[in-house]
Structure formats: structure tokens, C-alpha cells
């Protein structure tokens, strides 16, 4: 087979394997018989249907879910699977590993088998978009020269919508962009190529504007998704700072919460979501926001070291919490079950209730026997490459690993400190470490193979173009 014939065959096989990769990433939803649900989904869906804003529920993401409502949300899962394959294929090509169909397929199959990625693809939540945003920011900042115009626009659109879909992603993208700016100032002394900030900054601004703009179009309020203060307050309840403040200042007629000092819950989730929480007796999260904001500032002033210590502890706890979980308890899912009963057709609701998640309430904890060690080992390799930067992996591989490590550290800080540690928050991004580790190993093997063959001979023999691209990219 001639080189041109082999190239044509590989190109056709490359596209032929895309549907298979998409299906692999959808397997939990296909096995379940319905897209995976989570208690928050009802809150998202009702935003465009009711035209109102709610605690931590993006109206833009609600509109995205509502668009797939008539087809049982399968279009949403298909978009999430196809988008993931799209980003992974671009990432492979940008690292000189394109044009190798089976490599992409094996990598996606490994992610589908050994990580939580397919569970987040199958879940009707904005978590998968956060992972896309991290990879898209990396590609726009470090590998812009390897992208086609359509790819740049699509990656930018992914970032913009991901930011509008969840406020934590806005904070994450902002933090990554700041880190890229610092890397640009320090390069090349840190051994990482200088990132380009224009496209990343533009998408960041566009996403930050889309959030209030979409809220205005859907709910008539030009405002960010509300609830940040309430989530922070819940974490302070969990960590004991609010209890300490009440012990020091109650009784006090100016502090409404003093009446419920003895009824403070133990966890942030109980404060936020249980019907017996004092927040409901105080008028709900919106009515109680002024006092919660005042108490947060007061505790910061009075107990700064306890704030610092609990924040560090929460961030570390969140960084190390990435077990795969699945919400199957009807008591937890009552809101989405009730919402679906209202808005789905009887036939669609019957399909929803017949899905394994609702019918069998499966225990997925066994998956963590594989998922956790694979993620931990990959994370260790990512840290090694990002921090120490062995030359054998190349500067762009180091830039990818550094981006993933910064994203995981930033996500742990944002979610752990501003909300409260939860496996789901870190689990939605930890698959990036497995992906980065796989690309690092592939790049290293390719560089080692090329080092054994003179470059002139390689070019004369017409070696695969992706090999030459890898050499050029990694030596810039």
C-alpha cells in the first residue's frame, strides 16, 4: 500500500470511527434507557418554563435542556458525546497524534471504560461543559496555530456557553486566564511556551456577558445566576463558623438566625436543601441573603484564621474527592421526578420511571475500584510533568499538563471554599488528568521513535504528517 493510499484509508477510517466513539461515551445513558438525572435538573428546566431565576440554576442551561425535552433529552446527550469526541480529536492532532484513527478510538474507549467521563456525558448537568472549557482554553492559548477557523469558533462557543451554564466555570476560566497571563510573563524560564491571550480573554468576556444577557431574555433580569452568598454561608454552617458566631452574639434581636441557633444543621446540603432547614423559616434563600451576607463579613472580621484554616481544608478535601457517584434515591430526586411528571408526556414520563436509575436504583460505587486509582495515577503523572517538566515529554505536553493541574487546583478551591466539598465537583474534571496522561505517553513514545531515526530519512521516506507536526510543535 502506497503512502497516499494509506493516508486516504486512514482518513476514511478516522471519520468512520467517530460514531463508534460517540456511542462509547453514551453507554451509561443507553444502558439506563434514559439520560442520567440529578436532583438539580428540575431547577434548571423550570427556569425557561417559568421565566424566573433560582438559586444556582442557570437559565441558559435550562433552555438548552428544554430544547431536547420533546425527544427525552437524547439530543442533549448526543451533543455532549459528540462535543467530547470533537475536542479530543483536535487535542490529539494538536499534539501530533492525529491521522491515527485507532489511537483516538482506543483512547476514547479507555476513557469510557476506566473513568467517569461517560457518566458525565450521559448526565443532564453542565459538568461536562466545564471540562470542554478547560481543554478549549488550552487549545486557544497554546495551540492556536494548529486550529482551523471553524474549530476556533466552535471551541470559543463551547467556552462561552460553559461559562453561562455555571458560575463556577466562569470563576475557573477567569483563574486559568490569569494563570496563562502569568505564564506568558514568565516564559520561557518556566519551560512552557508563551500562551496567546486574545482568544481566551475574548471568550471569557463573551461568556460573562452571555450569562446576564440570557437571564434577561429568559427571566427579565439582567443579572448573574444568583445564590453565591447562600452557598458560601452553607459551607460556613458546615465548618462551624456560623455556630461560633451565634454562640458569641446570641441572643440578639438584630440576628434573625438566633431563634434557630439550636436547630442549625450539620452540613451545607442540609442547610440548603432540606425542608426543615432554618433558611426556609427565615423566608427562603432570597429573603435571608442580606443577613447571610452580613454574617459572612462579620465572621471574616472576627475569625480570620479559622476562615483561612477551614478554606484550606475544604480545598484540599475537594481536590482529593473525585469518586464516581450517581443519585438514585427518590427522596433526593423528588423535585426532578415531580417536575418531569408535570412537563413530560405520560409516555415519556413512563419511560423515565422505567429507566434503571429510577427502577433498580443501581449502586455504582463498585466503579471506583477502577476509576479512583486510574485517576490518581494519571494525576500523579500530570503533576510530575507539569512541575518538573521532563524534556522527553516536550513543552506543549507540559503546557497541557500544567493547564489540567491548574484547572483541578482551581476547581477544588472554587467548589470546596465557595460551596462545600463534593465528589461530583472534582469528578467532572478529573478525567482530564487521564486524558492528559494518555496524550503525554503517546507523545513520549512518538518522540522516542523519531529520535531513533534521522529526521532527513524520515522526511525522505514521507513519514506520516502527524509525526513531522509533533516534532515541529514540541520543539518550538
Notes on the structure:
- This protein is mainly alpha-helical and 476 residues long.
- The chain folds into two domains: 3-225 and 324-475, no CATH class; 228-302, no CATH class.
- The chain is 72% helix and 0% strand.
- The chain is built from 26 helices and no strands.
- Helix 10 packs across helix 11, helix 11 packs antiparallel against helix 12 (198-219) and helix 11 packs across helix 23 (395-418).
Topology:
Layout: H1 3-16, H2 18-25, H3 27-32, H4 41-50, H5 59-67, H6 74-94, H7 101-114, H8 117-122, H9 127-142, H10 149-165, H11 167-186, H12 198-219, H13 228-238, H14 241-249, H15 268-273, H16 278-281, H17 285-302, H18 304-319, H19 334-343, H20 346-354, H21 356-359, H22 368-388, H23 395-418, H24 423-451, H25 455-460, H26 465-475
Helix pairs in contact: 2-6, 2-7, 4-5, 4-19, 6-9, 9-10, 9-11, 9-23, 9-24, 10-11, 10-12, 11-12, 11-23, 13-17, 18-23, 22-23, 22-24, 23-24
Structural class label: mainly alpha
Strand content: under 5%
Approximately how much helix is present in the residues? over 70%
Q: What is the domain tally?
A: 2
Estimate the mean pLDDT confidence: 90
Short description:
The chain is mainly α.
Give short descriptive properties of this protein.
disordered C terminus, 26 helices, 2 domains, about 475 residues, mainly alpha, single chain
